[in-house]
Design a protein that fits this description.
The complex is a heterodimer of chains A (299) and B (138). Chain A is of the alpha+beta class and 299 residues long. Chain A has 8 helices and 19 strands. In chain A, the strands form 4 sheets. A 7-stranded antiparallel β-sheet of chain A has the order 3-4-5-9-8-7-6. In chain A, strands 12-13-14-18-17-16-15 form a 7-stranded antiparallel β-sheet, sandwiched between helices. The longest helix of chain A has 14 residues, at 57-70. Chain A is elongated. Classes of the chains: A alpha+beta (299), B alpha+beta (138).
């Protein structure tokens, strides 16, 4: 479904949607299903999407009219900009809308195979940008493999598809994503800058703070750059934690990525004992993307 | 005819800045604030307290105008000190964000949150002024 990415592009993956954007663009998360792409802090493109089971033309037209009406725009069924013709070949049911001035402002399309409905908007639609946007959108895909990739800003994380996004934070020096899968709760944290944080606190102390578990049994890693902790309470203690509405079983790991001056942490909590295979696999697939390598990896 | 007509406040239609416009602003240090670099490299800012004129007049009555204007001190950490020194009246907010991101290894979005929060805090204390430059939409 997606076109081949070129070398000057990098992959952005968020909540099931994969898109290749120019290397000099930045991706900002504006919502669980809303991304804004910027170049030099100027918005170039924004996309919103939703999973749609009912993707009949009538339903799509209704959606498009609804969105366009909210933005005071007019729907045009034909006469797309030439730069977006590629999208018509790639996706189904493409419709565009124009502002009152007649300027092309955005559109909506459906990826029928993946049952995903995408709305895109262009704040300043000039022809060179339209071509770039058309190329970007042509690479948009929504893969559903056994694992789902989260790759945005400077980190990359692959987790099983059963984990759904619960919450996220992009705060100063702390990027945190949290997921849930049945009774398992997963938190991934990226902290920076590591050197100044480690001057004030040890890895163990940071892990205790992140997991919010003072009674964590912590084992330092052999390399000295990581540590791992767990809480496996007795049955009585489990009852006690459950009465306090806390997850009794906790597994956490933190490690220092010296090359990027970041700390990466993964915290699992569950009502049942946590099988170690999944956490260790997730830790192995959680990394900081080195800026100079990011474009090469995706090519 | 109503004797006491209810007064309705006129609707204010002040349009706020867009994010792009805000990031194109140029922060400048307030002339009323004095600052010095401490031995550890951090910055200490001293700025006058905003006191209502009534209390200033009251203090002057009792002390015959001998009381100096009360000031407050604010010590910045290393990152705050670095950002403060970037307020040279020429750099735009987005330039500062990019420099902070490069220096500290934070991502652009993280650096933006740090810098804008810091600017908001300094603005609240009256330590900076933001000069609004023309926004280039190209």
């Amino acid at each position: 479904m997606s076109a081949e990415p070129d070398k000057n592009k990098r992959l952005v993956a968020w909540n099931g949607v994969y898109i290749h954007i120019p290397a000099d663009w930045d991706a900002r998360v504006s919502g669980p299903r809303h991304l804004v792409f910027e170049k030099d802090f100027q918005p170039q493109l924004q996309i919103r999407w939703e999973k749609s089971v009912n993707c009949s033309p009538g339903f799509l037209q209704e959606k498009l009219t609804h969105y366009a009406g909210r933005m005071g725009s007019l729907v045009t069924k034909d006469n797309y900009p030439a730069e977006l013709h590629k999208l018509k070949d790639t996706f189904d049911l493409l419709s565009c809308y124009r502002g009152e001035s007649g300027m092309f402002e955005g559109g909506i399309f459906v990826c029928t195979a993946r049952q995903i409905l995408v709305l895109f908007q262009l704040p300043c639609p000039d022809p060179p940008l339209l071509k770039e946007v058309g190329d970007c959108l042509a690479t948009l895909s929504s893969r559903t493999h056994a694992e789902i990739l989260w790759r945005i800003q400077d980190f990359s994380l692959a987790i099983p598809v059963s984990y759904l996004l619960k919450d996220y934070t992009f705060a100063a020096g702390l990027t945190r994503l949290s997921f849930y899968s049945s009774d398992l709760f997963l938190q991934t944290c990226t902290l920076g800058p590591a050197d100044s944080r480690l001057d004030r606190q040890s890895l163990e102390e940071i892990l205790v703070t992140l997991s919010d578990t003072p009674e964590l049994n912590i084992v330092a890693g052999k390399d000295g750059n990581s540590c791992e902790g767990h809480r496996t309470p007795t049955i009585l203690k489990q009852i006690f934690f459950r009465l306090r509405r806390e997850k009794p079983f906790i597994w956490a790991r933190i490690w220092h990525d010296a090359a990027s001056n970041r700390l990466l942490a993964v915290v699992f909590s569950s009502n049942r004992p946590i099988p170690l295979t999944t956490p260790q696999k997730i830790c192995g697939q959680y990394e900081i993307i080195q800026k100079e390598n990011s474009t090469k990896e995706n090519s | 005819m109503k004797l006491f007509r209810k007064k309705t406040a006129p609707k204010r239609t002040v349009k706020g800045l867009t994010r792009t416009e805000a990031l194109a602003g140029v922060p400048m240090r307030s002339p009323s604030a004095t600052w010095k670099v401490l031995e550890d490299g951090n910055i200490l800012i001293e700025y006058p307290l905003n006191i209502k004129p009534f209390f200033i007049q009251l203090a002057n009555r009792f002390t015959r105008g001998q009381v100096p204007r009360p000031t407050k001190k604010l010590q910045l950490d290393s990152m705050g000190s670095r950002v403060w020194q970037m307020f040279d009246g020429e750099k735009e907010v987005r330039t500062i964000i990019r420099e902070v991101s490069n220096q500290s290894g934070l991502s652009l979005q993280e650096a933006e949150i740090s810098v804008t929060t810091f600017l908001r805090e300094l603005g609240r204390r009256g330590l900076i002024l933001i000069h609004q430059a023309a926004v280039d939409h190209a």
